Amino acid sequence: MTLDLPAVAADPLDVLDPEIAEFVRRSMEAGRGYPPRETLSAPQARLLALETRRQWFEGGPIMARTEERMIPTRHGELRMRLHRPEGVTAKGAFLYLPGGGWVLFSVDTHDRLMREYAEAAKMIVIGVDYSRAPEARFPQPVEELDDVLDWLFEHADELGFDPARLAMGGDSAGANLTAATSLKRRDEGKVLPAGMILNYGSYDLNIFTESVVKWGGGSYLLTTHMMVWFQMQYMRTPEDITHPWASPIRAHSKAGLPQTLMVMTDCDVLYDSNIGFEAALREAGVDVTARLYPGTVHSFLEAMSIAKVSRRAIRETAEWLRERVG
Fold first, then answer.
1. Is 101 left (phi over 0), alpha (psi -120 to 50) or beta?
2. What is the tens place of the pLDDT at every residue in 111-133?
3. Active-site positions?
4. 172, 174, 112: which is closest to 148 by C-alpha?
5. Neighbours of 242 (CB within 10 A)
6. Fewest beta carbons within 10 Å, which of 60, 91, 171, 221?
7. The domain made up of 16-324 is a member of CATH 3.40.50.1820
8. pLDDT tens, position by position, 218-242
9. Could you tell me how far CA 84 lies from the centroid of its own chain?
């Protein structure tokens, strides 16, 4: 018997933009010889992530000034890094939250991305290291970021931006926390960010989706196994997965959330989560701009040193920021 099956692609990366394929190859090569992150302790995994991603966060724009300080929260102090580019013209600011599955990344691993945003938008960009799991489990980071926003609104004049023009965003887990914190503040009647930037985020922790199966096998950086490990580090109990602060798409209502820009990738475990959240926001009447960048993978923005599509996405996000909150 002959099986009539489709031909197997010679290289699974052939479906990607060629420069993004190179980004994937170099990222995987940097991790070769090390154990998978999900087999390590969280502190070991963070050190490995810092080392293997160094090629992507070094270099880039030089800022007129970069400063660090500690921000008080109900759970203790958090590190803040503020980038001020030369020739700031935007009156607003952009609070950025690094991703990494609530476990791995920091303002160090995402330093260049934040500087690229600052330079392109001519806007102050502020990064914050919310507490990482498993040392800080759900919902501690959401509560911390609620306090961070209160502090930033209170100290905006000192930091040099208009508090009414403070946008908030992040990638992956950082996008998840942006949506969750905005839901929390909306429900409590507090001041919301002027806009949300959601870069390939996680909005539904249900992993029974087609994109999880299609893209999570190990060829496109973020794997299904890693997603399970991340959730096990972050959640206190399986029931937490359905909480709106963990899965924002499950909020009873999404109405009243800030204007939103969604940056989405098509070759990504989280593709279905992004498409679903976009539809839910639109149905709730939220002002949403959604941009899908074909041939890209999770974390593709970090490829800005070698990939035109990454630089285009950063530029287009900066333009949105300037037009909507700048």
1. left
2. 999 999 999 999 999 999 999 99
3. 172, 268, 298
4. 174
5. 12
6. 91
7. yes
8. 999 999 999 999 999 999 999 999 9
9. 21
